[in-house]
Amino acid sequence: MTQDCGSSREGQHESPLFPGLFAVGMELAISISESETPAAAWTEARRSLEAVRVYYITAVLKALSYKRMQVPPRQMPRHKITDIRKGLSDMTLQKSTVSHTGTLPTLPYYLYTDPRILELEKEKIFSKAWNYVGHTSQVAKPGDYFTCEAAGEPIIVVRDQDATLRAFYNVCPHRATKLEKEAAGHKKILQCSYHGWTFQLNGQLHKAPNFKESDDFCSGAHCLKSVRVETQASLIFVNLDENAAPLAETYADFFEDIGQFGFLGKLKKHEVKQRIIKCNWKAFIDNFLECDHCPIAHPSFVATLDMSKYNIINGPYCNIQGSSVKQSRSDYDDAEVKEGRFYWIWPNVMYTVYPGPGNLSAIQMFPVDHETTLGVYTVFLEGDEPTEKQKELLAFTDQVRKEDVEIVELEQIGFKSRAFSQGICSPTEHGVHHFAQLVREALDL
Q1: What values do phi and psi take at 360, rounded to 5?
Q2: Omega of the bond leading into 347 within 30 degrees of 0 (cis)
Q3: How far apart are the C-alpha atoms of 30 and 41, rounded to whole Å?
Q4: Sequence-ordered list of residues with C-beta below 8 angstroms from that of 331, at least 6 positions apart, any chain
Q5: What are phi and psi of 292, to 5 degrees?
Q6: Which of 44, 52, 150, 343 is the Cys-Cys partner for 131 at CB 3.0 to 4.6 Å?
Q7: With contact defined as beta carbons under 8 Å apart, do 353 and 359 qualify?
Q8: For residue 220, what are the CA distances in angstroms to 14, 25, 159, 173?
Q9: Could you give the CA distance from residue 287 to residue 308 in angstroms, rounded to a whole number?
Q10: What is the pLDDT of residues 71-127, one digit of tens each?
């Protein structure tokens, strides 16, 4: 018996999705054919089709979610972070992190293996979040710039002649060519390599050689498109959503805590390493948000930090972890940093401050596809050449990262198995559950 593609497999009411898509397509085709400005009509049609695509994916995912979820999602109370600087090293894990008894569900595993999920995440998570892009030391002087990506969009961050920090889409308004090709540099004028259009550092069009005869062409209508950029604690963030809450408000707990490290403004970018990791980006975040695995997976880590005082606290859009160095580790008696502090901020950025000389590492997880992630590890240190202590620190942190990569790649293999459809969170894995709730809320699942 042939099944009607518009009917439910469970014999329920007829789904409106496919007839709805057909009707929208027909309406758009008619409007384009009858329009006096077909190009403009086609542009509007593309926007409408994109909206329909996102709606369709969301509807499918909701159906999958309701069918596959073994346990309905349960809202976890989010910890209020108060006087965390004092509390992290003094409070024990048991006193500060056990916020539920029994078990709570992880995200269903199809969210880590279904390629349709990533398309929805790009639209509903990454394009609406604050994206960390760099450190203020990278644009210290007027004319300094660097290029990057945020939510898949090419971005250029520049310090203009008035010393104002600005961010723009790294795209020429003339014919959409990527404007600046270099990763970083210093310029007085930005120039497109295609037709030679030039732009001032504030984004205003300077010259357009192929519009010489057009009066007032460079008066301001064809400037670079700006992007929201804000800084806190010497860290630079951009946001593609013009209506997003301010950076300082979104990650208030994170900035309050990391602000205790007075050396942040003195740091310089030392090195950047990249790794292709064979896992979904969320798997790496899950792993970062708990330390139940640390005694097994990270022997050097637990040999340095006092795990009896290790604390994990959730903020609305962040997670803060840490502990002091073990009293037996006298080799850290004279260290500038005598604790480990580990931060995650929504959705895909982590920061670490390890015991030793002043340091900060930014860890970014960029999804390549639904089961592959590009990990970008940027290390900031004081000085120009690494000291022996700094070299020891770099070797220590790199070992911990390698251990984490091995774990999450093994986990991705299990996600694809038919053995289980989701896992469970222990009472001390409440950070993982907190992240899962944020994902569900963002995707409307």
Answers
A1: -150, 135
A2: yes
A3: 10
A4: none
A5: -60, -30
A6: 150
A7: yes
A8: 53, 37, 20, 12
A9: 19
A10: 333 333 334 444 444 444 443 333 334 455 567 899 999 999 999 999 999 999 999
